[in-house]
Predict the structure.
Amino acid sequence: MSYVDLTQALRDWPYEPDKISVRKILGTDGAVRIQMRVELGVLQMNAEGRPDGASPCGCESLLRFHQKSLAEHEERNGAPLGFGLSREECHALRVEASLYYRRYIAFFVLEEYANVSNDTATSLDLFDFCREYAMEPEDRVALEEFRPYVLMMDARARAYQAVEEGEPASALAHVNRGILSVRDHFERHGQPDAESTSEELRILRALAAELGDRVPKDSLIVTRKALRTAIEQERFEDAARLRDALKTRLDKDQTA
């Protein structure tokens, strides 16, 4: 086995402490890779599948493997009762969550917002799965402190994607839904005071104010029309988001 000194490669791509430097390359196998410059070198991730390129137990991710195991358990037993994640399995899932975290940050820097949303959605599914099926109480809550951040990144990515598509009202709805989700998280965990110090809420509220200036004055009419269309087309997730945005706007108008 031969080893390569990376000194020159790192000099050609210097580390900048105040900047997240990310680039995409084409691997020798023809697959797209994402590289992130860090203080002591370069992190490299696959752009598709699990970020480290692994296929745990033949599945796309460890989460998918455990979800498959749960489905098989339910098919055999008729219910999820008796299914659980050990400490070791929960630890491995937390490691996997860290891989997706690094990649959705990289995608965000690259302004590939649809890919950010895919990875934040996977992260939230993983959080939910551990909270639901971890056998040890501490493993059920181990990831919950990171949920507000993931919810914030998910809302920002969906909002910026909507802005790129020329839909500022939809973007604002995504942000408002993110704000509600973060607030619900704090209330669920008995942390109502966290709202006043939450950096995630500060960022989302600032973005909501910025987007509010872009939304036409007749945005209520636009939002109602979009809501009707979403319901007619059975796009229920979009309908829920637009309904939340409509409620937020009406509540704001009533208190103004």
User: Anything to note?
Assistant: The two ends are 70 Å apart (CA to CA). Residues 62 and 171 are 32 Å apart (CA to CA). The first helix runs from residue 7 to 12.
